[in-house]
Each structure stands twice: as C-alpha cells, then as structure tokens.
C-alpha cells in the first residue's frame, strides 16, 4: 500500500489473497522509521496449520530471504518449539520465540485469518553469536525488538 497510496486495505488484502492462491506464503515487509527498526513476516502459513514467522531489526530484503528458507522447511516439518536454537544453512544462529501479540505485528495475516494466527519470531544472533538480550549485541539502528518472552 505504501508503493501505491490509491490502493485501500480491502484491495491490498485481495492482492495478497491472489498471491496466496499461487504460492503457499508471502512475506510482508514493514520499513524502518526513524528509531523504529523494520520487520518482516510471513502470511499464509496459518492456512497450512503452521505458525507465521516474523523477524525484526533486519533489512527487509535479507529478512525475506531468511523467512523464505525457514518457511519452506516449516511446511515439511514440525514447528520448532519456543526456545529452540538452530544454526541455519546461511550460518545465522536463530532462536524461536513465541510472539505474544501477533495481531499487533502481523496485521495482514491477522486481517486474513483472524485470531487463529499464531507466530514465532526468528530471533537472530549477531556475527559473534550474541543475542539481543545480551550486553554487547551488535545491532542496527533501533535494535532487534523481541516480541514475546523467551522460553525457559
């Protein structure tokens, strides 16, 4: 909708629904603004009985590639439990965190699927494998907000 301000919310949701008819999921990017980092999330995994995925604090193009890889795996495997840490093929170390309020951060997914949307945040470690909750985490402007409590 930012690319074409003449497109209203209903038209945009119809556009996303057409894309989902052709593929299993799409990635929705939200650009960074001032001190608020951008984020990206999947739309469509809910229809496959999987949680949607979200990444914060990473450029949208890189987040899209990462989300596409994790989503492709998720369609053929059980969803990882919150707290699971995995080193992805790309080398990035991630931890999965249950998103506390997906309706706030995954607006398009929530508009299409309603309150049944569940989500996992793919929290990424920096180039030294430090997490955003550790001192010394190297982040971009605005950091990497974590959208739920870490599993114990």
From TrEMBL:
InterPro entries: DUF4262
Pfam families per record: DUF4262
Protein name: DUF4262 domain-containing protein
């Amino acid at each position: 909708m930012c690319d074409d301000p003449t497109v209203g919310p209903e038209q945009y949701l119809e556009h996303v629904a057409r894309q989902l008819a052709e593929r299993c999921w799409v990635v929705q990017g939200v650009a960074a603004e001032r001190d608020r980092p951008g984020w990206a999330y999947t739309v469509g995994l809910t229809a496959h009985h999987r949680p949607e995925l979200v990444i914060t604090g990473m450029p949208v193009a890189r987040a899209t590639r990462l989300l596409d890889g994790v989503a492709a795996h998720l369609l053929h495997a059980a969803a990882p439990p919150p707290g699971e840490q995995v080193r992805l093929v790309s080398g990035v170390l991630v931890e999965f965190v249950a998103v506390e309020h997906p309706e706030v951060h995954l607006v398009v997914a929530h508009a299409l699927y309603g309150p049944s949307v569940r989500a996992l945040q793919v929290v990424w470690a920096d180039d030294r494998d430090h997490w955003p909750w550790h001192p010394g985490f190297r982040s971009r402007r605005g950091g990497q907000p974590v959208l739920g409590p870490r599993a114990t």
